[in-house]
Amino acid sequence: MSFASILITGASGGLGAALSKELAGPDVTLVLVGRNLERLTAVAEACAAQGANAHPLQLDLTDQDAALIQLTKADQTHKFDLAIANAGVAYGRETPELARSTTATNVLGVLSTIQAVEPGMVARGKGQIGLISSLAAFRTLGGPAAYAASKAWVRLFGEAMRGRLARKGVGVTVICPGFVDTPMVDDRTRAQFGASMMPADKAAQKIVKALAKNHARLSFPSGFSLRTWWLSTLPAWWTDRKIRRAARKASKQTNL
């Protein structure tokens, strides 16, 4: 399956920018959504250099009403056959304010994106939706709770949507990456997991292949994915101890 009209949110950097460039090419239209217009324009120009018709769209997805209106208009104009809900935030620490920000972007932003493109795809009887979740959606060991919860929501939302939309000609792929080497990764995480991080361009290649084949789920890297799944199957009394240890360690590092 190839795609000719594509929406990508969170496209101004990191994995979103890598996905944009991976999908760019002649006869491809890209609508690239992000908050930073300068960076978004730079990504659009790079995609245009590859022959794509790239449109930067500055939009704050946490403004649900505005996002729904603008993205619905974009779908009516471009008739997307692929939409990737990639926009998301992650913070190295969690305060009530950061938890609300995480939920607003990672949950409500995804919801606005899907609600904008789903009706058009269903009416046309075709389309592919990609949702960027995380391996943290399966099990987290002391990381920010709002981030893990938001990505668990994305995973379950996508899996439920896949069953509902399959008979209507619309595919859904849930992507659960481990650590991808992007600017969103903080220095402490990079120092701890840097050796196992996947370059953004390589991650984008894997994701595009999974979308083209309408895979139900893509989790990577394989070793880290298997470890996370294994932890999710263990009894709570055992993982609770691990979580407490990880939380104490993270607290000590934060106070250094």
TrEMBL record:
InterPro entries documented for this protein: KR_dom (IPR057326), NAD(P)-bd_dom_sf (IPR036291), SDR_fam (IPR002347)
SUPFAM superfamilies registered for this protein in UniProt: NAD(P)-binding Rossmann-fold domains
Record flagged with keyword Nuclease: no
The UniProt record lists the keyword Kinase: no
Stretches assigned to the Ketoreductase domain: 4-183
SMART domains noted in UniProt: PKS_KR
Keywords, comma-separated and alphabetical: Oxidoreductase
GO molecular function, one term: oxidoreductase activity
A Pfam family this chain is assigned to: adh_short
GO cellular component terms listed in the entry, alphabetical order: membrane
UniProt record similarity statement: Belongs to the short-chain dehydrogenases/reductases (SDR) family.
Name this polypeptide is given: SDR family NAD(P)-dependent oxidoreductase
